[in-house]
Design goal:
There is one protein chain. Helix content is 40%, strand content 20%. With 426 residues, it is α+β, with helices and mostly antiparallel strands. Helix 3 packs antiparallel against helix 4 (69-101), helix 5 (139-146) packs across helix 12 and helix 7 packs across helix 12. The N and C termini lie far apart (57 Å).
């Protein structure tokens, strides 16, 4: 959410920020609502001052036994005019807030210009993609051949974009989630949470999913929403709070199912489990003071990278360009993991610094040591990482010629010591 005072002070800079994202300038329309609201409120103050004068005059006239009819008639008319102006001010404020709610965050200065993912910048690469002496298979080929990944059963149960995992693959998925949580809490100091999977409209608004992305969400009949990511409940834990600065930063994590309608994704990644309506993810959320968020962004991204490095999965860090940066984010790093079956890197984590954008929507502030409210906190979120995509990456990078899958060393304790998932005949 944006502060109209900032737009009022420098509308050209605000429009330029929107243009960087490929959007049209809107400051003129916003300021028109703002001007109409402020003019109506100014006129209300003038009329209220006159109404107070009339009240005093009417009181004096009554004490002296004088005529008050004309004064009372003017006061009654003023009351109607004030009510009408207040309605105008309220309508203009609602219109202004509705338009502001649809506008994305301002980008950080070091976000590169660009229109889409083709203009993103690779800033780091780790690991060498494996070279197999046989044609690399995709995860769904491996999983179906093992008899442990069933898309037909999932389609009978729920339709497309769902998966049933069985046996060792189901356990491997669970092992990945537990490993990620242990790394986030034990090494990087995130506090584990269990959070609601159903949240209110206000909660979705706080992190920026509403109103713009409503078609991408699953909504219940009572008006609540299934979470698209644990970012939503974790970040909203500080909604309407004023947090002593000495307690910050907060670092929260949770492993949850995530639910996405994938509106507009028809025809994309229809085979396998890359793009699902339901998937598990370990989420990382940080709440910081404004001066801490840039450093925290690097730290969070490093936490996600550590997951991939300990799993031995080749990846690269990508700085998203202006046109590819998400709605609530000021700056985003994507981590892309190598998938041998596809022969390319695919996103497995996004780590974003949202600045005070979400905090303004949630009214989340901090209190200085002197007791004064210092302003809005900064919020950050990142995938640490998507469990389903990590499963895909492990399957494809650790595949063997006979279709077996070796289990990375760090996961074997979570698998009861099992080192390999073999084909049915082995």
């Amino acid at each position: 959410m944006h502060d109209i005072r900032d737009i009022r002070n420098d509308p050209a800079a605000f429009d330029a920020a929107l243009v960087r994202r490929g959007l049209e300038p809107v400051s003129a329309a916003l300021l028109a609502h703002d001007k109409a609201r402020r003019e109506a409120l100014s006129r209300v103050q003038e009329l209220q001052a006159r109404r107070n004068q009339l009240a005093r005059a009417i009181g004096a006239a009554k004490r002296e036994g004088g005529e008050t009819g004309a004064l009372e008639a003017e006061a009654a008319k003023l009351k109607e005019e004030i009510a009408a102006l207040e309605a105008v001010a309220e309508a203009e404020e609602r219109a202004l807030e509705a338009k502001l709610a649809l506008l994305p965050n301002r980008l950080a200065p070091d976000v590169p210009d660009g229109r889409d993912e083709n203009d993103n910048v690779v800033v780091k690469q780790w690991g060498e993609p494996p070279r197999f002496p046989f044609p690399a298979r995709q995860h769904f080929e491996l999983g179906e051949a093992l008899g442990l990944m069933d898309f037909e059963a999932a389609a009978r149960l729920a339709g497309s974009r769902f998966t049933v995992l069985r046996g060792a693959l189901a356990r491997l998925s669970r092992a990945l989630g537990q490993f990620m949580l242990d790394l986030a809490t034990g090494v990087f100091g995130y506090e584990e949470h269990q959070v609601p999977l159903l949240v209110s409209r206000e909660t979705m608004f706080g992190t920026g999913q509403l109103p713009k992305f409503e078609e991408e969400l699953f909504q219940t009949r009572d008006g609540r929403f299934l979470i698209p990511t644990a970012e939503v409940p974790l970040t909203n834990l500080v909604r309407d709070e004023i947090i002593p600065e000495t307690r910050l930063p907060f670092r929260f994590t949770a492993l949850t199912p995530c639910f996405r309608a994938e509106a507009g994704a028809a025809g994309r990644d229809t085979r396998g489990m890359l793009r699902q309506h339901q998937f598990d993810k370990v989420e990382l959320v940080s709440i910081t003071l404004p001066g801490q968020s840039a450093e925290e962004h690097e730290r969070m991204t490093r936490a996600a990278e550590m997951v991939l490095e300990r799993l031995g999965l080749p990846y690269r860090r990508v700085l998203l360009c202006a046109g590819d940066t998400g709605f609530a984010s000021a700056k985003t790093y994507d981590l892309e993991v190598w998938l041998p079956g596809q022969g390319r890197y695919r996103e497995i984590s996004s780590c974003s610094n949202c600045g005070d954008f979400q905090a303004r929507r949630m009214n989340a502030r901090f209190r200085r040591a002197d007791g004064k409210v210092g302003g809005f906190v900064h919020t950050l979120n990142g995938s640490g990482v998507a469990v389903g995509r990590a499963l895909i990456a492990v399957m494809e990078n650790y595949q063997e010629e006979d279709g077996a899958i070796r289990i990375p060393d760090v996961l074997q304790p979570y698998m009861g010591g099992q080192a390999r998932i073999g084909p049915p005949s082995s």
